[in-house]
Amino acid sequence: MADATTPVEPATAALGELGELPGRMAATLRSLQAAADVSFGCSEKDAIHREDKLTLYHYRPIAPTANLPPVLVVYALVNRPYMMDLQPDRSLIRRLLELGIDVYLIDWGYPDGADRFTDLNDYINGYLHRCLDVVLRRHQLPSATLLGVCQGGTFSLCYAALHPERVRNLITMVTPVDFQTPDNLLSRWAQSIDVDALVAAHGVVPGEVLNAAYVALMPFRLLQQKYVNLLEIEDDQAQMDNFMRMEKWIFDSPGQAGAAFREFTRWFFQENRLLKGTLEIGGRRVDLKNIRQAVLNIYGKQDHLVPPAASLALEPLLGTADYMALGMDVGHIGMYVSGRSQRELPQAIVYWLQRR
Amino acid sequence: MAADTNPAGDWAAAMQKAQTDMLRQWSELGQGWVRAAAPAGGGAGSGMAGTAVPGIGAGMATGAAAGAGAAAEGLARHFLQQCERYLGVSRSLWELVTRSAGISDPEQRSRAFSDGLAVLQQQFAGLWAATPFGAPAAGALSGLPGMAGMPGMAGMPGLGAMAGFGGIPGFGGAGSAFGLPALGPAREQQESWQRLAQLAGRCAQAQMQVAGQWSEIIGQALRELSARVAPRLKSGAAPASMKEIYELWVDSAESVYAQAARGAAFVQAQAELTNASSQLRSAQRELLEEWAKQFDLPTRAELNSIHQQLRDLKAALAAARG
Fold first, then answer.
1. In A35-178, which residue ranges form alpha helices assigned H by DSSP?
2. What SS3 class is residue A144?
3. Same structural domain for residues B137 and B280?
4. Active-site residue, A150 included
5. Contacts of residue B141 in chain A, CB cutoff 8 Å?
6. Segment A32-53 mean pLDDT
7. CA of B275 to nearest chain A CA: how many angstroms apart?
8. Do residues B233 and B293 share a domain?
9. Each residue's pLDDT tens digit in chain B (322 positions)?
10. CB B66, CB B41: distance < 8 Å
11. Does residue B290 lie within any of the structural domains?
């Protein structure tokens, strides 16, 4: 170590870095170009129901059945659901299929100007209800398992509280319940937003607005450093392809139907009605005590979008004692694509289902 | 020895400048390539093909399919821009480290670095604000696509940076006229313009507030960086690479931002910008709709009315079906 009293010799490492930079940038650009036509989604599926912008998919089985009730995946409105089935080695859906689960998924589609008046009642008591109808009819069953993801988990909680007889088991993944935990920066910002004015200005709130809010949570990392870090994977085409898939998914954000966006922002973020027990959907109170079936609550211990406390607030609100919280050592997006999730989560879900 | 009288810093500076210039050229070439490729809807990146930049032309000239190709092109452009910023930030910090490290007294060495950072504040604020993502939090909730601080305002028909006021009777460029009560046959129109002007002014003020918040964040981030680096300089353990100091900068900036973004002043400034932008956008649309009505063109309000009627009809039909 240098003596504290002598001048520090300027390191010459910078010269080496700068000398290497052009070559590394060129290699990175070539890898990026090669990633241009990277594919998304990997498991075969069939559209079995369409309604307005929505499509209900059934994934083709790839393994002997586990003889468990079908699972309907209810994804969020704010991003595209192909994150659940991104590529063969990063697909929670594929892992569930390999374990013999019959999987359905709701793709909400891309709302347009005609959807500005579509509200939460339409989504929860309308679209979700009818999709579950289709699934139950196909299987001649009175109830199925709901797997709600992020905002889709919140929808699933509302639905299960309003129609408990149609939900066999409930799985929530990275799902906010308490929207006003101190560590929730997004919620902090949302408190002062005039959501009426925002919706009046846009009708359908553009996905770019939400994207901007998300990247603004960590702007120096998400707007700059992550691109600079591409230099680190200059010659790793597989990693570059992964990056490209993620980049597409992150910014492939549907607009938000204005009425639903207004209700979600006000009722959940600004008034925290789900937690307080004051939420009404379609004129009926959403009482989470009505949920008496088994609940598996999966959350990310490093989730900065839905902090753990926001998910863990669920337990005391439920009417069931059959509740299990499963914390994964991942962030919000890592829950879908990390190696740890791929290895551990599907097995944990199936193990939990088999015991109910 | 040459190293004693002609420190490596001179060579480093020359090389850094050369790299910066090259990076800028690449960015321009990349942008030209994107522009050239875009209208063709998937044509090859001809703008880049044939350029003399080694290692670039071949990869880019292969051409990309439409859609996914366009995404990669955009990403490539963004990558180049971020590299440019990376080099700008890292170079400034590196020069300061190098300069400070040459001072023999440990206390002075540390102080020189801290003082130098204070001088860099404006440059750093400029670096951040100059990007398309400048003031990201401001753009985040402003409700206007594009994510720049106030995107879309200048490009919005009807706003025209208020230039159109000059041609409106009673608005002869005098700001004070906006404060007068509207009179006469054009009273309603005048009120619409007055409202628009007030909202534009409110937006501009809000944007300044947000910019002030960002300037403060950048300043604090530099002080945080100083707190992390100065002790190392004092003890002779200077950051060993540009990448290292860049990452220290990002860590410092995110740490400060995480606190500031929760603060009442930041939240208030951002919310005011968002809310004012939303109201301005609605006012712009109302004005456009007035024009559209003059030409018997359909308006958003009419479409909304039809959508609402359709929705009511669907509900009535569903109820009738039981």
1. 92-98, 120-121, 129-139, 151-162
2. strand
3. yes
4. yes
5. 189, 193, 198, 209, 212-213
6. 91
7. 6
8. yes
9. 444 444 445 555 665 666 666 666 666 655 555 455 444 433 333 333 333 333 333 333 333 344 555 666 777 777 877 787 777 777 788 788 878 877 888 888 888 888 888 777 777 766 665 444 444 433 433 433 333 333 222 333 333 333 333 333 334 344 455 667 878 888 888 888 889 999 999 999 999 999 999 989 999 999 999 999 888 888 888 888 888 889 999 999 999 999 999 999 999 999 999 999 999 999 999 999 999 999 999 999 999 999 999 999 999 998 898 7
10. yes
11. yes
The pairing of strands A54-59 and A294-300 is unpaired
> How close A288 gets to chain B, by Cα (Å)?
27
Tell me which residue in A25, A197, A244 faces B72 most closely, judged by beta carbons: A244
Give the residue on B whose Cα is nearest the Cα of A29.
B76
Rounded Cα gap, residues B285 and B260, in angstroms:
34
Spatial CA neighbour of B219 closest among B293, B85, B285, B123: B123
DSSP states along B215-254: HHHHHHHHHHHHHHHHHHHHHT----SHHHHHHHHHHHHH
Residue from A42, A131, A150, A158 carrying the catalytic annotation: A150
Could you tell me if residue B142 is inside a domain? yes
The angle, 0 to 180 degrees and rounded to 10, between the axes of the packed helices A13-34 and B8-40 is: 10
Question: What DSSP letter does each residue of A195-214 carry, written as one string?
Answer: HHHHHHHHSEE-HHHHHHHH
Give me the residue label for tokens 């490093």: A302
| Residue B217 maps to a domain | yes
Residue of A30, A202, A215 lying closest to B143 (CB–CB)? A202
With an 8 Å Cβ cutoff, are B136 and A212 in contact?
yes
Closest alpha carbon to A169 in A293, A316, A72? A293
A212–B240: do the CB atoms touch at under 8 Å? no
Question: What local confidence, expressed as pLDDT, does residue B52 receive?
Answer: 30
Cβ-Cβ contacts under 8 Å, B106 against chain A: 4-5
From A7, A197, A230, residue closest to B102, measured CB to CB: A7
Q: Are residues B151 and B272 in the same domain?
A: yes
Q: Which pLDDT score is estimated for B178?
A: 60
Number of structural domains found in chain B: 2
Residues of A in contact with B238 (CB under 8 A): 8, 10-11
- The pLDDT, as a whole number, for residue A135 is 98
Burial class of B163 by CB neighbour count within 10 A (0 to 12, 13 to 18, 19+): exposed
Per the document, the length of chain A is: 356
Q: Which residue of B has its CA nearest to A201?
A: B282
